[in-house]
Specification:
Length: about 500
């Protein structure tokens, strides 16, 4: 019988769940996708129904597999990538979640963050976990769930299990209440704020600090390893051999395997990750996170910077100002003028993140004159994403101590040529778009493929990576510096807007 020729990738995202079947060169053979409900029970709260996500997961696996026309024996392994930090607690006897999952965007733990930061400051856990205290990470979400249990002793008794979405799905997919495997990979664990960044294990002092019973935690495993076997769906019997958080999966899918290699995902917001090899603590407000760990190898680390508003500003122009019919119409409008006409748009809608960390900043449009048109506005909107990316990258290079060679890109905005050219101009470096844009799914499949010997080594993956397009800087450095001065001036004007 011929050896299995394909890999599966489950991409459990914030708004939808997808399953893709890929061939050896990373091409998509079949895929299926289902959205799930978002619950907003109070301002700042965001929840998911983990059981709904499980059912959608099972459905998309079966749908994509049926569409592929393959036999299960032709799939070598599957990899899983997932929305990070989103926190689920479930009952090991019934398999049912205890309430809804608390999503990464949820800010209900803001008061707890302030309390913990009151002694020792917001960075008190940074050296140990790579993360500042924030509503973003899982520990305080888990604490909130435990504090609101109808039967508070259940967790201590070991009846309850904690996990991020990868854990919850792997437990169910490998047998659930019968003999489900309870684990999580190092990249997901590094976003809980309960793992020691260097030791790659749960830290007893952090568990005590956040009042988390060790009995409910999954085992931490490398990203690429034999994690278990699917016990359900048409793919029953196929190994699960890769798990990576979504942004780390994109880094792997982009083949950023060497220190200094970086990718930026341009979606609603931007997520910029740079491979640093060993862990580097940030002094500029970036996160230190595990990038990946392949079985038998040391963990590789990354610095991460996030930008809250990128594509979201294009949506805002479309939905709030009605200047655009569709998001992709922005390019033609912006291209109808030769430059920004001297205006800058700082989209500090909910403050500014890395590297500024200004909660009280608010959005600002600077440099307006009677000459300004909506085309200049469209241009300033696109340029804002490129300037913000440069700010994060500058901080990253200072933290890492070495420069970035070139930036690899993916996400919904990278179809925009004008933005990508401006990005190269403003970074004064090459910006690359790969032929295979589904980098998140690809990274999960790669981790599974490496762990099962489907791929011999990382070099084989690197050989797979094909450039679709490269943008090189076209403007002189003096012009780039002038534009960046304008941007920085506008950024400073946005600081301290609140309170009025
Ligand atoms: P996410 O994964 O965060 O939902 P996507 O990667 O699908 O986002 O990207 C969607 C975002 O990209 C939207 O905010 C949209 O406004 C923006 N976008 C899509 N096409 C373009 C384009 N051609 N130019 C600029 N922005 C775009």
């Amino acid at each position: 019988m011929a050896e299995p020729a394909y890999l599966g990738a489950l991409d459990q995202g914030t708004t939808s769940t997808r399953f893709l079947i890929l061939d050896r060169s990373g091409h998509i053979v079949a895929s299926a996708q289902q959205e799930h409900a978002q619950f907003y029970p109070q301002p700042g709260w965001v929840e998911h129904d983990a059981t709904e996500i499980l059912h959608r997961t099972l459905a998309v696996i079966d749908q994509a597999f049926a569409a592929s026309g393959l036999r299960a024996g032709q799939i070598a392994a599957i990899g899983i990538t997932n929305q990070r930090e989103t926190t689920v607690v479930w009952n090991r006897i019934t398999g049912q979640p205890v309430g809804r999952a608390i999503v990464w965007q949820d800010t209900r733990t803001a008061d707890a963050v302030a309390q913990y930061a009151a002694s020792g400051g917001q960075d008190r856990l940074r050296d140990r976990t790579g993360l500042p205290l924030s509503t973003y990470f899982s520990a305080l979400k888990l604490q909130w769930i435990l504090d609101h249990l109808p039967d508070p002793a259940a967790a201590e008794r070991g009846d309850l299990l904690f996990g991020t979405m990868d854990s919850f799905l792997v437990w169910h997919l490998t047998g659930g209440v019968r003999n489900g495997t309870h684990l999580t990979d190092v990249t997901n664990a590094s976003r809980t704020q309960l793992m020691h960044l260097e030791q790659l294990d749960w830290d007893p002092e952090l568990l005590a600090l956040f009042r988390i019973p060790a009995a409910m935690l999954p085992r931490i495993v490398p990203s690429g390893a034999l994690h278990g076997t699917l016990a359900t769906t048409a793919l029953a019997g196929v190994p699960i051999a890769g798990i990576l958080g979504d942004q780390q999966a994109a880094l792997v899918g982009q083949n950023c395997f060497h220190p200094g290699e970086a990718k930026n995902t341009y979606g609603t917001g931007c997520f910029l990750l740079m491979n640093t090899g060993p862990a580097r603590t940030s002094r500029h407000g970036l996160l230190t996170t595990v990038a990946y760990q392949f079985s038998g190898q040391p963990a590789c680390y990354a610095l991460e910077g996030s930008i809250a508003i990128a594509g979201a500003l294009v949506q805002w122009l479309r939905d709030n100002l009605g200047i655009l019919e569709r998001s992709d119409a922005i390019e033609a409008l912006a291209a109808s003028v030769p430059d920004n006409g001297g205006i800058y748009f700082v989209p500090a809608f909910s403050g500014l993140y890395a590297p500024y960390w200004q909660d009280s900043a608010r959005g600002i449009l600077a440099g307006l004159t009677r000459f300004t048109t909506r085309a200049h506005l469209a241009r300033a909107v696109l340029e804002a994403t490129a300037f913000q990316t440069r700010d994060v990258l500058e901080a990253m290079e200072q933290d890492a101590g070495f420069p970035l060679q070139r930036l690899r890109t993916d996400g919904g905005m990278v179809g925009n040529d004008l933005l990508m050219q401006f990005q190269a101009d403003i970074l004064q470096r090459d910006v690359l778009r790969p032929a295979m844009r589904e980098t998140t799914a690809l990274g999960a499949a790669y981790a599974a493929g490496l762990a099962t010997g489907y791929y011999a080594n990382q070099d084989e993956l690197t050989a797979n990576w094909r450039v679709d397009k490269v943008w090189s800087p076209r403007i002189p450095v003096q012009e780039q510096e002038r534009l960046c001065r304008g941007w920085k001036k506008a950024v400073e004007r946005s600081f301290g807007w609140l309170p009025i």
